[in-house]
Amino acid sequence: SVEKDVPVPSPTKVDLTCKLDENSNLKNPEVTWKKGSEIIPHISKTPNSWTIQLTISDKYHLGSYTCILKGEKEVSAVFHLQVPKIEGKEKPVITYEGDKAVMVCKTDYNAKTWTWHMTNGTELVPIVKILHADKFQIMSPSAGVSRLEILKLTKEDGGVYWCEAEFDLGTSKTRFELRVLSIAGPLKPFIAIVTEVVILVTAIVLYEVYSKRKQKGREKEFDQIEQL
Fold first, then answer.
1. Side by side, which strands form the sheet with 170-181?
2. Is 150 in a helix, a strand, or coil?
3. What is the dihedral of CA 52, 24, 22, 40, to 10 degrees?
4. Whole-number pLDDT of residue 218
5. DSSP 132
6. Which of 23, 75, 84, 226 has the greatest number of CB atoms lying within 10 Å of its CB?
7. pLDDT of amino acid 1
8. What is the pLDDT of residue 167?
9. Which domains can be identified in the chain, with CATH numbers?
10. Per-residue pLDDT tens for 21-30?
11. Where do the DSSP E strands lie in 12-144?
């Protein structure tokens, strides 16, 4: 089985072709095109390829179209017609309190609009730039890119954010995880090391002071014995 994603941002006509390699052992197969249980007749046929033409006018025409070839064995190819995917960041965005976080969404196609959401429990709350101008900055340098900046980060800003692009045939979104660390966090190991060094140096100094006092005490005692 072979699968392929076919991005469709707006209404259009799409030709899907199922083609056998010339060296395939599957000879004169029975070919069926389907979407779910619905059979779709192919409009053209050659000895090794079969094509259907689709008119994608709304989101209900999107979905998975399967080409099934039956002979001595059965093989298939699946075409997933869907709105374009948008790229984000798989790994968490990690930054510190007081800094700013930057999240960028991209697509190879022109989106009609971009929307950013933050998660409040189980709900998605739209980020409205006008209402949160001192906290959020949203920029779209092109129709295929959207950028969110979160300013003056606090611990409460950590969480899950969503970027959503709207196309003529539907929407596509991706997830970001933001982690806000305390500035003191990375310093803890350093502080622990410094503390150990200070304790060690203090112990050495006290030992030297004690040793010197003890030595002076012995010298004084020796002088008194000599005088006697």
1. 93-96, 170-181, 159-167, 113-120, 123-126
2. strand
3. -10
4. 58
5. T
6. 84
7. 75
8. 95
9. 2-82 (2.60.40.10), 93-181 (2.60.40.10)
10. 877 777 788 8
11. 12-19, 30-35, 38-40, 44-46, 49-56, 63-70, 74-82, 93-96, 101-106, 113-120, 123-126, 136-142
